[in-house]
C-alpha cells in the first residue's frame, strides 16, 4: 500500500514542475524574453548604480532604519 | 534608499514605454488574500522567534522588540517599512516580472528564477554599512539569500493563486519586514529557524495547491484552458 505522503509528494512535483502557465497567459501577456531581460537589466542599473556609488563614497548609508528591507 | 526603488521604477519605465501588465488582483477575494498575506509574511520571523530559543538562541525581550523604533518613533518606522521594500520593489518583482516568467515557467521554476534575481539584487546591501544585511554574518546572510527562492513561491501563492496581485505582495512584504524588524535574529539558530520556516511554508503551500482546484468557477474566463492544479493537465471551462 502506498504511503499517504507519496501521493502528496508526487502531486507537489507535478504541480510544481508541470502546471501549465495560467493566469498571466489568460490575461494576455505574450511571452517576451527580451522584456524580461530588459526589465532585469534596468532594475539592476537603477538600483546598483546608487548603491555602488554609495559604496565607492565610503559605503555608509548612515540610515540604518531605512534599509532593513528584504 | 533611492536605489531600493529600482524594481518598481523599472516597472514604471516599462509601463511608460507602453508595456502593460493586466491587473491580477481581485478585490472580491480580499477576504482570502489579505489575511493570508499578512500571516504568511510574518510567519517565518515569528517561527524563528518562538523556535530559536529551543535551539539555543537567546529569547527576545521586550527591549529587543521596541529597540527597532525607539530612535525614530513607531509611526516613522511603520512608514519606512511600507515604502522601503514593499512599495519600492513589489510593482517590479510581482507586478511585472512574475507574470512574465509564469507565461513560460511553472510556479516552482518561476520562484527559482525570480528568487535568484531577487537575492542577487540584494548583494550590495551586504557591503553597505548601516543596512540590516550588513549586520548579518556569512551563514545568516547566505540563509537570507537562499530563503528568497522558497519565499518567492509564497509570494506567487498569494499574488497569483489567491488573486491578490501586487497589493497582496505589498502586504506580505510589509508584514515580513515589520516582523523581522521587531523579532530580529539573536543568533545563528534563529536565522536557521527562519530559513526552515520559509521552506516549511513553501512546502505546505505546494501540498495545499496540489490538493485543491486551481480557481473557483467565477474566476475562470470562458472557453479558456485552466489547470486542475492536481496533475498539470489542462481542462476547458464551460462557456459563460
TrEMBL record, chain B:
InterPro entries: MmRce1-like, Rce1/LyrA-like_dom. It comes from the Bacteria. Residues 74-178 form the CAAX prenyl protease 2/Lysostaphin resistance protein A-like domain. GO terms for molecular function: metallopeptidase activity. Residues 213-240 are annotated as: Disordered. The chain crosses the membrane at residues 33-55, 67-89, 101-121, 141-158, 165-183, 189-210. Keywords: Hydrolase, Membrane, Metalloprotease, Protease, Transmembrane, Transmembrane helix. This is CPBP family intramembrane metalloprotease. It comes from Occultella glacieicola. The lineage of its organism: Bacteria, Bacillati, Actinomycetota, Actinomycetes, Micrococcales.
Amino acid at each position: 500500500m502506498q504511503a499517504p505522503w507519496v501521493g502528496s509528494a508526487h502531486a507537489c512535483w507535478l504541480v510544481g514542475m508541470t502546471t501549465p502557465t495560467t493566469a498571466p497567459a489568460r490575461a494576455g501577456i505574450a511571452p517576451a524574453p527580451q522584456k524580461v531581460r530588459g526589465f532585469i537589466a534596468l532594475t539592476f542599473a537603477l538600483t546598483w548604480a546608487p548603491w555602488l556609488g554609495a559604496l565607492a563614497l565610503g559605503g555608509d548609508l548612515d540610515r540604518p532604519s531605512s534599509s532593513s528591507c528584504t | 534608499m533611492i536605489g531600493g526603488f529600482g524594481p518598481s521604477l523599472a516597472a514604471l519605465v516599462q509601463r511608460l514605454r507602453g508595456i502593460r501588465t493586466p491587473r491580477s488582483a481581485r478585490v472580491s477575494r480580499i477576504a482570502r488574500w489579505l489575511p493570508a498575506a499578512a500571516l504568511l509574511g510574518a510567519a517565518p520571523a515569528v517561527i524563528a522567534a518562538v523556535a530559536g530559543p529551543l535551539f539555543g538562541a537567546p529569547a527576545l525581550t521586550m527591549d529587543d522588540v521596541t529597540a527597532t523604533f525607539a530612535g525614530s518613533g513607531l509611526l516613522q518606522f511603520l512608514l519606512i517599512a511600507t515604502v522601503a521594500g514593499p512599495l519600492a520593489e513589489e510593482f517590479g518583482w510581482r507586478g511585472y516580472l512574475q507574470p512574465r516568467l509564469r507565461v513560460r515557467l511553472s510556479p516552482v521554476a518561476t520562484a527559482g528564477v525570480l528568487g535568484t534575481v531577487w537575492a542577487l539584487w540584494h548583494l550590495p546591501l551586504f557591503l553597505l554599512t548601516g543596512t540590516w544585511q550588513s549586520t548579518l554574518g556569512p551563514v545568516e546572510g547566505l540563509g537570507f539569500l537562499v530563503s528568497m527562492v522558497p519565499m518567492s513561491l509564497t509570494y506567487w501563492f498569494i499574488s497569483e493563486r489567491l488573486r491578490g496581485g501586487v497589493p497582496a505582495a505589498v502586504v506580505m512584504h510589509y508584514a515580513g519586514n515589520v516582523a523581522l524588524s521587531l523579532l530580529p535574529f539573536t543568533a545563528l539558530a534563529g536565522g536557521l529557524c527562519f530559513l526552515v520556516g520559509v521552506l516549511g511554508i513553501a512546502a505546505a503551500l505546494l501540498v495545499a495547491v496540489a490538493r485543491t482546484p486551481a480557481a473557483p468557477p467565477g474566476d475562470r474566463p470562458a472557453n479558456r484552458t485552466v489547470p486542475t492544479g492536481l496533475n498539470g493537465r489542462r481542462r476547458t471551462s464551460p462557456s459563460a
